[in-house]
Amino acid sequence: MHHLGATRSSLKHDHLLQTPDTFVRIPLPGANGVDFIVHASPQLGANFTQMTAEFSAGGTLVAASGQRFIYVLEGELDLVIAGDRHPLGPGGFAFLPAGTDHSFTAMEAAKAALIEKIYAPIADGPAAAIVIGNETSVAEVPLMGDSSLRVRSLLPNTDEYDFAVNTMTYDPGAGLSMVEVHVMEHGLLMLEGGGIYKLGDSWYPVEAGDFIWMAPYCPQWFGAIGKKPAKYLIYKDWRRHPLGA
Questions:
Q1: What b/e sequence results for 139-173 when a residue is b if at least 16 CB atoms lie within 10 Å of its CB, and e otherwise?
Q2: pLDDT of res. 93
Q3: What Gene Ontology molecular function terms does this protein carry (predicted)?
Q4: Which of 9, 209, 211, 244 could form an SS bridge with 39, CB 3.0 to 4.6 Å?
Q5: pLDDT at 1
Q6: pTM for this structure?
Q7: pLDDT > 90: what percent of the chain?
Q8: 90-136 tens-digit pLDDT
Q9: 3-state helix vs strand vs coil in the chain, percent to 5
Q10: Is residue 100 a contact partner of residue 63, using CB atoms and an 8 Å limit?
Q11: Tell me: the pLDDT tens digits for 179-210?
Q12: Which long-range contacts (CB under 8 A, 24 or more apart) does 190-193 make?
């Protein structure tokens, strides 16, 4: 139903809240039977691309030119690398360094979060390796000692990797201990529950399915509201000097 232009979506100079009622699906090269919702991109001012990929049964996606991270939201994807098959169900994830020959095929209708970024190497540094896993096998760590707010780190925290992807889970009523202002930018997909997000000078109700982009130095804070935990998947650029050296 059309609501005369009403939406929670909002675009400001340092952030975007994109809600499902405003999603537009497009086709992209390298995919067959897959629709993409582009959430963050260089056109927005981001230094990465984050999308939701919606696979029809049998839909396929081949390798990208840059590095790629995928997190399965619904259904099952068959990841093939050098002839080896790696089934990924909900919560399954994979990191593929740039140049990795791979493909994804949907065993059934499926949905996944897809993050792509041009790699920023360190001179004479080690190369990033393939990472495949499931979120449930990653240990939860309390954030700053607060057991009501827990983090799972899905990529190794080493110099080989120039970005991080985590899930964060908040018990009802839990919130960040401070308003954060930092050099990293974020892409955030709400997975479960909801709450209130402070972005810049604005306050927004958010819920599962919403996407948020935060530019570097955007003031940010989140608190969970409701009777069940709130959870999101969050990207940040990481472990690189601001001057690119």
A1: eeeebeeeeebbbbebbeeeebbbbbbbbbbbeee
A2: 99
A3: ureidoglycine aminohydrolase activity
A4: 211
A5: 59
A6: 0.97
A7: 95
A8: 999 999 999 999 999 999 999 999 999 999 999 888 899 999 999 99
A9: 0, 55, 45
A10: yes
A11: 999 999 999 999 999 999 999 999 999 999 99
A12: 190/230, 190/231, 190/232, 191/73, 191/167, 191/231, 191/232, 191/233, 192/228, 192/229, 192/230, 192/231, 193/224, 193/226, 193/228, 193/229, 193/230, 193/231
Counted residue by residue, the chain has a size of 245
Q: Tell me the two tokens of residue 199.
A: 């972005």
The single residue listed with the structure tokens 């799972």 is: 152
CA distance 244 to 121: 9
CB count, 10 Å around CB of 125?
Answer: 11
Taking the CA atoms of residue 97, residue 91, residue 28 and residue 66 in that order, the dihedral angle to the nearest 10 degrees is -10
Torsion region of 173: left, alpha or beta (phi above 0 gives left; psi -120 to 50 gives alpha): left
Q: Which pair of structure tokens corresponds to residue 205?
A: 């109700």
Torsion of CA 180, 181, 182, 186, to 10 degrees: 70
Strand, coil or helix: what is 123? coil
